[in-house]
Amino acid sequence: MLNYFLKGEKGTRLRFMGMLLSAILVLLSVFTLTHKGLNFGLDFTGGYLTEFTTSQSVELKELQSFIAKNHNGEFELTAQGNSHFQLREAPSASTTSTAANSLDWQSAVTQNDDINAQVLSSAYIGSQVGDELFDQGCLAMFAAMIAVMIYLAVRFEWRLAVGSVVALMHDLILVLGLFSLLQIEFNLTVLASLLAIIGYSLNDSIIVGDRVRELLRVQSNNILSPATIINNAIKSTLTRTLITSGTTLATVASVWLLAGAPLQGFAIALFTGIVVGTFSSICIAATLPELLGLSAKNYEVKVDAHTQTLLDMP
């Protein structure tokens, strides 16, 4: 069914429409990131993180309203289950003030008969530690990007390399844009998932790029147009791509649904990255080189006059 849509001009038109859609989504993601930013977790901002359980099922909104009456600062309450909750407190001007707020609301929820909460753990993360983790995480991602660019520059002709790099940037921007739009907590596990997305997106683009290069090398007589060659390359790798992406998505979806709240951000980022990575390997990594003038001539073997004379001899 998919091979039918990738035939001839129809396939080329779909690829270009997909690239236009990708450009629109990237612009929207950049706009969202600029205006809303990312919802950084305690790993980066610092503050108190408290986990507690209640003796019976309590509505999240009711519990949040009750804690707000006994808390003077900013906080965020999330449900980890029917009776398991996690409260994140933003760092205040002084650690003493934050600690006093924590004791106030903790005493209130543990002494209330309707809630009867039990505190499981409470920890404070300093902002200095968060800044250091953020800097190191960004440095790791930057180093990975540089390594990827060097690898692509050595492996591919520059047009295919540019297509793979642009597809990689597209995937990262769309994942960050989704986290900004939905204000999902951005923590160290999400940052680690971005590094995994870099590897997955690169692998997907290389599979398609390798096939495009192979077909261009055998088209020395230029019978087929570059668009037809790219369509044929995508069709020949489509089954493998869909099977790989499908099995990976099934695993990530299981983590998303069954592993609990601590890994939800990680799973959402990976799930989104795999989907947009598969899409970009077709609509960007394989289509952008065509716009840049990729053709079979780029892979013709150049020989000098003496060698050509020898080749022409009977």
UniProtKB/TrEMBL annotation:
Keyword Cell cycle: no
TM stretches of this protein: 133-153, 160-182, 241-259, 265-288
Protein export membrane protein SecD/SecF C-terminal domain ranges (all copies): 109-288
GO biological-process terms attached to the record: intracellular protein transmembrane transport; protein targeting; protein transport by the Sec complex
Pfam families: Sec_GG (PF07549), SecD_SecF_C (PF02355)
Matches recorded under InterPro entries: SecD/SecF_arch_bac (IPR022813), SecD/SecF_bac (IPR022645), SecD/SecF_CS (IPR022646), SecD_SecF_C (IPR048634), SecD_SecF_C_bact (IPR055344), SecF_bac (IPR005665)
Keyword field: Cell membrane, Membrane, Protein transport, Translocation, Transmembrane, Transmembrane helix, Transport
Entry GO CC: plasma membrane
Localisation per UniProt entry: Cell membrane
Predominant subcellular localization, coarse grouping: membrane
Membrane topology: Multi-pass membrane protein
Quaternary structure and partners: Forms a complex with SecD. Part of the essential Sec protein translocation apparatus which comprises SecA, SecYEG and auxiliary proteins SecDF-YajC and YidC.
Main function: Part of the Sec protein translocase complex. Interacts with the SecYEG preprotein conducting channel. SecDF uses the proton motive force (PMF) to complete protein translocation after the ATP-dependent function of SecA.
Family under the similarity heading: Belongs to the SecD/SecF family. SecF subfamily.
The protein, known as: Protein-export membrane protein SecF
